[in-house]
Design a protein that fits this description.
Order of helices and strands: EHHEHHEHEHHEHEHHEHEH
CATH class: Alpha Beta
Distance between the termini: 6 Å
Number of helices: 12
Largest sheet: 8 strands, parallel
Radius of gyration: 18 Å
Number of strands: 8
Strand order of the largest sheet: 2-1-3-8-7-4-5-6
CATH superfamily: Ureohydrolase domain
Helix content: 40-55%
Bound molecules: manganese (II) ion
Number of domains: 1
């Protein structure tokens, strides 16, 4: 049985709104308030953050130079650090559960999975309201939490270029693609989306061009969750390992909570996420999972988003303990 390792990555500098760095603590408080000793049961590691980049004048000057990839120098360091934590734990035969702030971290996690064994083909199941496949060349906001998949695929989508980026941004962005291993981490055919429903035009074109399958909420309900997850797993059957990236905004904000940076209605129910993740876990191919974008500062239902995330985390951990 693998030893579970919780990796706490309290970083929110890839988001446009502050507070996702507190998501981990909100999840821990959800556990404490339900008298659950979850966070005492497992080993954990804290990843050093760069969150001071928000206040630091030098970093602010860099932000001015990189408007289409805000705080990219700090995010590059943060993702590199997270990548090292993930790679070390996988090499030690641990099962890393990464709890991050904003979703830019996923690039670090994927890079770490690839760095642990570059020969292994990595499949990605991306459960999210957003496609996160912008590059600095296409992003309307310049927030890097919308870009991790583009960096992992090493695909800038230049056909849809909107922004003229600086030389500095271009160089740092290329370094983002080199974290962990110098090559691309994931092939487009090995990526599957669940629940993506809030995209911009350059992303739509890129998803079409790369042929990435998106299991929309309506399709999943119409065809059946089990059938869709089975189909996704068979699409990834040539992958040696699978990474699950769970952005809590995949869930329906009206039904669950607005405690996340970019809430979107008409998403999944928590129960659907639990069934989905349990079925993916049953493939016994999952090497790492990540939870992101819980922002308790935006939650007007108390701590509901973190409580929901914790419930999913517990179910998922139970599946890991039984199967890995
Ligand atoms: Mn996301």
């Amino acid at each position: 049985m693998k030893n579970i390792k919780i990796i706490k990555n309290r970083s929110d500098i890839g988001a446009g709104t502050r507070g996702a760095d507190m998501g981990i603590d909100a999840i821990e408080i959800a556990a404490i308030n339900s008298k659950n000793d979850y966070f005492n049961r497992f080993d954990f590691e804290d990843v050093k953050t760069e969150n001071e980049a928000i206040y630091n004048e030098i970093a602010a000057a860099t932000e001015y130079k990189n408007p289409y990839a805000k705080r990219i120098d700090s995010i590059l360091r943060q993702c590199t650090r997270l990548s090292e934590h993930v790679a070390t734990n996988i090499k030690d035969d641990n099962f890393p559960i990464v709890i991050s702030g904003d979703h830019s971290s996923a690039l670090g996690t994927i890079s770490g999975i690839k760095a642990a064994d570059a020969q292994k083909r990595v499949g990605v199941i991306w459960i999210d309201a957003h496609a996160d496949i912008h590059s600095p060349y296409t992003s309307p906001s310049g927030n890097i939490h919308g870009m991790p998949l583009a960096a992992a695929l090493a695909n800038d989508n230049l056909d849809c270029q909107v922004n003229e980026i600086s030389e500095e941004t271009a160089q740092l962005w290329n370094k983002m693609k080199q974290i962990g291993v110098p090559d691309i981490k994931v092939q487009a055919e090995d990526v599957v989306y669940f629940g993506v429903r809030d995209t911009e035009e350059p992303e739509d074109k890129q998803i079409d061009k790369l042929g990435i399958k998106n299991y929309k909420v309506a399709e999943v309900r119409y065809r059946g969750l089990e059938i869709c997850v089975n189909e996704a797993l068979s699409k990834l059957s040539n992958c040696d390992v699978i990474y699950i990236s769970f952005d809590v905004d995949a869930m329906d904000c009206d039904m669950v909570s607005y405690g996340t940076g970019t809430p979107v209605p008409k998403g999944f129910e928590p129960e659907e996420i639990i069934v989905m993740i349990r079925q993916i876990m049953a493939s016994k191919k999952v090497a790492c999972v990540e939870f992101v974008e819980v922002n308790p500062l935006l939650d007007f239902k108390g701590n509901k988003m973190a409580e929901t995330a914790f419930r999913i985390l517990e179910e998922m951990t139970d599946a890991i303990q039984k199967l890995y």
